[in-house]
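Narrative summary of target 7.
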Amino acid sequence: MAPARSRSFDDPTLDCPVSPETVGRLARATPGDLPDLVEGIPESTRARLAVWLYGRSHTHEIGVRIAATCDGTSLRRAGGLIGNALYDLSRRPYAAPTHGTRVSGSARISLGGSSRHA
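Modeled conformation, tokenized:
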């Protein structure tokens, strides 16, 4: 009997539907190479993979691109509401998320309160 590998919640492969080697190949691939790399993966597994990748900031775009190879039913089955949103997002031209970016010319916010007294 082979020893069981200990897993923790910090384990990035937890719940990943494909091998870490496959994820590595997908991460290094150009957008044009992705369809060929996922061609042999069953659609239900591709849908779970798209949801899994989309949930990580560094593989967000790859998740959207793989979701574009899946139908809406598979994505909804794999990710519920997230799968539904991912389906919609994958049918639009990709736009990188803007969360965490600073907009130039934004107003300064003070946490000190108003300087006027009532």
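Residues 20-90 form one domain.
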